[in-house]
Protein 1
Amino acid sequence: MSIFVYVEDWNGAYKKSSFEAVSYARIWANSLNTSVTALTSSVVSNPSVLGEYGADQVLTFEIAKTGFGLAQQLQALIQNASGVVISGTNFGKSVAPAFTALSSGALSSNTTSTPITISPLTVKRGAFSSKGIETIELSSEMPIICFVPNSIGVQEFPTACTVTETQAEGNDLLSVEEITIASGKIALPEADVVVSAGRGLKGPEHWGMIEALADVLGAATACSKPVSDIGWRPHNEHVGQTGIQVNPNLYIAIGISGAIQHLAGVSASKTIVVVNTDPEAPFFKAADYGIVGDAFQVVPKLVDTLRAFKADQ
């Protein structure tokens, strides 16, 4: 018996969510005193790196291009499983329900915790459009966990692993054309530094200074839910309980009051810096560093200071 984990790659490279999936599987496997088997694409040049995060065995194969095709491959490869882990990326969220149907398993989607209890298996997951959290029990012999990226975090469990190339048939019912769009921006879920702003900026026309600060820090830009709801920024920048969850080394919140729904999406950040004119803003209670001041004065000074510092290096 083993915990199986599908490890997604992007053009042959792993991201944080890839390693987080293996970490999740290792934590689960440790509670069962069993092994971790990682399933991943054969185009990845260094699949053995998954051993650093807890994989005992890595099986590589040519991945189908559709979620249903991959689900068929997983069904063929996964034998004697104690459970299956899939990261809730856009692709993962299409694979998990298809695999669940094919394997007659029990799926916990939108999962936000590692197993709370093992027998019976219980986990926490987002409910009511992630406005609430519920604890559910998976009683199937094939429990499948599809977790929210950045909800668990990457953890290292150095393990000696073997890598084996294999084959699995998957029926790609659709013709898939891959189009790569070079935006030049850092993907928000993968960012080590995030600069986020809220309604304190008073309008979308003032976002230039946020992008300037992000540029000098090599950061991704983000926003609060009200900002994306009123159309100042795209929804894919919305951070919070109902948006993207992040776990950067540095999260800078500018003009965001700190509603509990927003804090739920950034609580895993290593260091939080808050800039707000209101010294009573709730976000300050969660901050490691706080600046009480006008963002229109503070941010340009930060940008100028950082640019000068980098120029001297």
Protein 2
Amino acid sequence: MTISYSDTFVKLLFRWKGSLWKAIWRHLLVFLLIYYTINGIYRFLMTPVQQEVFVKYVVLFDSWTKEIPLTFLLGFYVAMIIRRWWDCCQLISWPDHLLYNVSALIRGNDDPVAFDFQAETRIIRKTMARYAILSSVLAWRSISLRVLARYPTERHLLESGLINKEEMELFRKIQVNVDPHQKWFVPINWIQTMMIRCFERGILSHTNELRVLLDALEKYRNGFFQLFIYDWIAIPLVYTQVSTISVYGYFAFALIGRQFPSQNEYREVVDLYVPIFTILQFLFYVGWLKVGEDLMFPFGADDEDFEFNYILERNLEIAYLIVDDLHNQVPPVYVESLDEKLMHTKASIQLSNHPQRQHLRKYKLDPGAMMISREPSLKRGNTIDLNIFSKDIFCLKNLHRVKSIRCRG
């Protein structure tokens, strides 16, 4: 998942996991090795005549690097990828909304051994929760490397308890010729059928209750479907190629164009052994490109990819809490007045407090202006005296009727 950070800026510079340094250190090392190899050849192996020719190429290559609009290309490219990455993050399906509706509308929480009406509804809720988690595993293992490594085959699903033998036999009988991985919708279809049967048997008393459950189920399903679309349709390859070739082409020319020759007749520069500004540019542009490359496919196993395994564990625990442990559970109701002011700790009371305040709180009318008047309302063409206000502010609903304003003093 995206690396969380809340330290100061200085501490963040030395973070390694998910950092710029981890993303580009290999690229920077290769660049500097080639750069100093060319520099050594120029200084120690070339004849004076060859050095003069090399200096001309340095000036030429440096001028070419100025013609590549890296900022323009990378700006649009990375902005599009980040927007796509955030959309994928928003489409991760969480079962909370669906199961809260299931718990609220499918009532009953009795002894699970006695298969009466109450116990049956408990089993129905838990089965729906299990199917919801099963559908997420089936969907995410088709797009996420983490989930695929955890549940590579149907046998692993069976051993994990997410599906039993009877359900597995029924699941295997369903044939999807277009793509076998598209069978993730089957558990959702089972949930839908269970909801309809609950309505037919009277567990759901009204069609509106069934509609609420079906709408929540549809929203839960759409998250998986949209993630499949994002995984299927990637950023156009030509756009990625243009951005990548531009960046690496720029620094390929910079290997020669940013050399500092000892002959300064073409440009007056100090003979530096460390290309400081070129290294900074490498950090900026290659790091910028790596942001796009890392976020383009957020379903892998990199530092910035989505942690689907944690999400699965969290969803499974919360799902059973909602439909079983917390179902019909509420503390005893008691009558006790709450203090008007909530408590503070010594640490919190020292923090600045900015209560809500209206911008007109300091403006007041003069005492004479607050006297009740029986005069008729303003008519078009009347004159208003602004001195009735003490803070040079005028606010009147009938301002559009006023023809002129007179200020004294």
